[in-house]
């Protein structure tokens, strides 16, 4: 069931805590980055369909790192969504709420979470079966204060949220203090400019620092 898939995923994302949002140009870089992130203690990453290589990277990373919770991001159409799950992604997310994609996910039991930015979208998505929501673009929308206010009237529904957009090492602790927020995501780990410059030591150091901060927050 679609709802159960999301509940299961919410539990896994809560254990993982931080989801790097990756924009990757080629398979080798993608595999090296997944390996580096795992070595630093991260358990998941979202590979975005913002580059042509995304599908290939999902397929290769799934084979190479079967225990890594691999997600597909920036899922904007049916092809992306079907491809992501055909290739072995454990979850998929989108920046916005596209009812057609949610209906497809509900039909096929895909662990797919759309992005929401307003209470109206929460209610419309909830009616179609969504229980785990991406909140995007979190900081520009008003950050943790805004999300807490969105959550308040729906607390009794037991919904889960994962904010992204402007979330960084400097503010993620505030989000994770909210019980309904299962994880935070963002491009601050595995940054495109660091990848381009080959700053692998810095990438690993940043990822380790994030995991240490997560441990301090969640114990
Ligand atoms: C996303 O798709 O979640 C965002 O692009 C992440 O936003 P950020 O670049 O501000 O972290």
Placed side by side, the strands forming the largest sheet appear as 5-4-3-2-1-9
Q: In CATH, what is the class?
A: Alpha Beta
The succession of helices and strands, N to C, reads HEHEHEHEHEEHEHHEHEHH
Mean pLDDT: 97
Helix content: 40-55%
User: What is the CATH architecture term?
Assistant: Alpha-Beta Barrel
In terms of DSSP E residues, the strand content is: 15-25%
Could you tell me the radius of gyration in angstroms? 16 Å
Molecular shape: globular
What number of domains? 1
Provide the list of bound ligands, each named once. Answer: 3-phosphoglyceric acid
Low-confidence stretches: none
Sheet bearing the most strands, described?
Answer: 6 strands, parallel
Instruction: State the separation between the terminal residues, measured CA to CA.
Output: 32 Å
Total strands: 9
The CATH homologous superfamily: Aldolase class I
Helix and strand content put the structural class at alpha/beta
Number of helices: 11
